[in-house]
Every structure is written in structure tokens, then in C-alpha cells.
Design brief:
Order of helices and strands: HHHHHHHHEEEEHEHHEHEHEEEE
Radius of gyration: 21 Å
Largest sheet: 8 strands, mixed
Helix content: 40-55%
Oligomer: single chain
């Protein structure tokens, strides 16, 4: 793939970072794109990974590998520019950290190239904000103990979503003592359907927590925690705090993540009497090949067709969907074999959520 095309892909991710309030990464990626065009060390770092799955794979893998170096003290000159490592980012001097970034890539090429071989593993905790809302709505319709299954789980942090605390205008749900605090979870007051469901279910009974991932991460290991922290953008400290809290909850609440593909994982799931079986996923569909996703949909249809009031099924998703000329990240819930309902929208990282019938997202 020509360098110019790779650079354009990286610039596209730079614009996404700017829109998602990471001016640090937006500035760095614009410089990375120039370095790739010029055949600099960043071009050497990404060579061979141009066709990695996912539209943002090249940029996020590179950024994650370099961030890990800063987090582990191996890039002190860069760390002074990263808020995640106690440094400072000055928006009036957006390119101040670029020389240190480029020098780090050049000096630690073996490390960076090894990191580029791994798929991005964000496991964004903020997306639990939408998932738990969908789960509460499903529980409101079918008040049974819940078996929870997640596709593309990464480290399985969001399998503990019921252990997080969510607050907004006049609204609070989840354990007061939770290590994960999601403040301003909704733009304004949450919708009436969520308030009713939350009032009816002050806590959820989850009897099983299982997920799947092709490259699962152990959140209780040092290497696993580092990988997760490395993919949180260093100037977004609130996201980092949520991740730290979720790692603490992972140590308290057991969940299993299997190294298996989504379709094969679903093929092994059967509904059980006296339980609501829920399959959920968030911002992972884009990484699944079309042929496999068709198998996933067949398995979801199988479970939906088998659903009964005594052995029920729900599908909860938070995924990007095309709405007109744009992609909106939407929470959708399907109860049994009924039609899917779009309940809410949110920013890609899950906060804040908002009513899809109202105005779109605001910066």
C-alpha cells in the first residue's frame, strides 16, 4: 500500500481524535502522517500492518505501543507531555511532544513493531453506560435471573457493568461503593423508560458472566492491565480513572472470557428455563468479517426464535449505524423474536447518552 494512502488513513484517525476531544493525539497523528509520507521512523514502524483489520488499526496500534513505553518509564522525554504519566499537554503548543514521540519510535523500534502485531484492545468502560441501560430495559420486560454473554469482550470489564455507578440529572443507579463512577451519564435527565426500569430493578441478579474474544486480555495481570491502559488516550484522564476502577471491580467479580470467535461462541449457547439469556456487544462489529457476522446473525436469530417467557432471550448492542450521511452510535434492544428497538445514542466512548429523537451530539 502506498505511503500516501497510509498517511491519509492516519490523518483520518487524527480528525476522529480531534472530534472525540483528544487534541494531543490529533496533533501527534498529523505529525505521524507527515513522517510516514517522508519515510521516517513511523513509516518503518507501521510497514507491513497497512491492511490490519479495522479502519483505525494502524494509528491506534502505534499510539498504544508508544503510550505503553511512557507508562512503563521507558520514554521519560515523552512522558512529560502525557497527562496520563503526570505530564502536561499545552494546546497552545500542540506539537511540543512530537520530537520526543518520533525519537521514541526510532529508539524503541523493536518494541513498537511487536506492539503493532496486536489488535487494539480498548475495552472502553464508558460503553457500559449504554449496555446497562439496555439490560435494565430487558429486565423490565422479563424479570428473571440473567445469564450475560458478551461478544468481543477484550478483558471482560463490561461484564461487570452492573457493579458500576451511573449518575445524571435526578438519576442514580448502581452500588454507591463502586470503584467506577460514571457522572453525567446522560445529556440532561435520562429517558422515562430507563428511570422506570432502574426504579424497578435497584440491583440485577446475574448468575453467569461469559464472553469471547480472539485475543482476550487478563485484566488481573500486569501485562493485561498495561495493554488496557495503553489504549486509553493519555489526555483523557476521566477515561483512565474509569478503567482503573473497572480493574478493581474485575478483581472482585468473576467473569470468563474464552479465546474463540463470536459465531462459534454463540453456537454453544442454549436458553435455560428460569433465566433471561442476554447477548450484548459494543463497537466490535466493524472488526468482524462480513461472512462471520452473517453467521453471528443466524445464531442470534436461532436464540430469538427459541425465546419463551420462561426461557427468555434479549440482544443488546451499542454499535455505529449509518443514519443518512453519518454514522450514529446507537443502543438497540431486541426482546425475543420481536423487532429491534433503538433506544438511545451516545458518543463512541459511551458518555453522555442522549435521546435519538432529540438533537444530535454536541461537542
Amino acid at each position: 500500500m502506498p505511503r500516501a494512502h497510509v498517511a491519509a488513513m492516519i490523518e483520518h484517525q487524527a480528525e476522529s481524535c480531534a472530534k472525540l476531544n483528544s487534541p494531543l493525539y490529533a496533533a501527534l497523528l498529523r505529525q505521524v502522517a507527515q513522517d510516514v509520507r517522508a519515510g521516517g521512523p513511523c513509516a518503518d514502524a507501521v510497514a507491513g500492518y497497512e491492511t490490519a483489520p479495522g479502519p483505525d488499526a494502524i494509528a491506534l496500534r502505534l499510539l498504544g505501543g508508544v503510550h505503553a513505553l511512557a507508562l512503563t518509564g521507558q520514554a521519560p522525554d515523552l512522558a512529560v507531555h502525557y497527562p496520563s504519566t503526570g505530564g502536561t499537554f499545552d494546546p497552545d503548543q500542540p506539537h511540543a511532544g512530537w520530537p520526543a514521540f518520533r525519537a521514541t519510535v526510532a529508539a524503541e523500534m523493536t518494541w513498537v513493531r511487536d506492539w503493532m502485531s496486536r489488535p487494539p484492545q480498548t475495552n472502553e468502560v464508558g460503553r457500559a453506560n449504554l449496555l446497562i441501560a439496555g439490560l435494565l430495559q430487558a429486565a423490565q420486560s422479563t424479570p428473571l435471573p440473567i445469564r450475560l454473554f458478551e461478544l468481543g469482550s477484550s478483558a471482560g470489564l463490561n461484564l461487570r457493568a452492573d457493579r458500576f455507578r451511573y449518575t445524571s440529572d435526578g438519576f442514580a443507579w448502581g452500588p454507591r461503593e463502586s470503584s467506577v463512577r460514571m457522572e453525567n451519564a446522560w445529556r440532561g435527565a435520562p429517558p422515562e423508560w430507563l428511570r422506570k426500569a432502574a426504579a424497578a430493578h435497584r440491583a440485577l441478579t446475574i448468575t453467569e458472566r461469559r464472553g469471547c474474544d480472539l485475543s482476550p486480555i487478563d485484566p488481573l495481570s500486569r501485562a493485561g492491565a498495561l495493554a488496557l491502559r495503553a489504549y486509553v488516550w493519555p489526555d483523557q484522564t476521566a477515561r483512565a480513572a474509569r478503567l482503573d476502577g473497572a480493574l478493581m471491580e474485575a478483581a472482585r467479580v468473576q467473569a470468563e472470557v474464552e479465546r474463540i470467535g463470536a459465531a462459534e461462541f454463540l453456537a454453544g449457547i442454549r436458553l435455560e428455563p428460569g433465566a433471561l439469556t442476554v447477548v450484548w456487544h459494543s463497537v466490535m462489529r466493524q472488526y468482524v468479517p462480513a461472512m462471520e457476522w452473517a453467521e453471528v446473525e443466524r445464531e442470534l436469530d436461532r436464540l430469538a426464535a427459541a425465546s419463551t417467557p420462561e426461557a427468555a432471550f434479549a440482544h443488546v448492542s451499542f454499535e455505529p449505524r449509518r443514519v443518512g450521511e453519518q454514522h450514529h452510535f446507537q443502543l438497540a434492544v431486541r426482546l425475543g423474536s420481536s423487532a429491534e428497538t433503538v433506544l438511545a445514542e451516545a458518543y463512541p466512548h459511551g458518555l453522555p447518552a442522549y435521546d435519538p429523537s432529540g438533537p444530535g451530539p454536541r461537542s
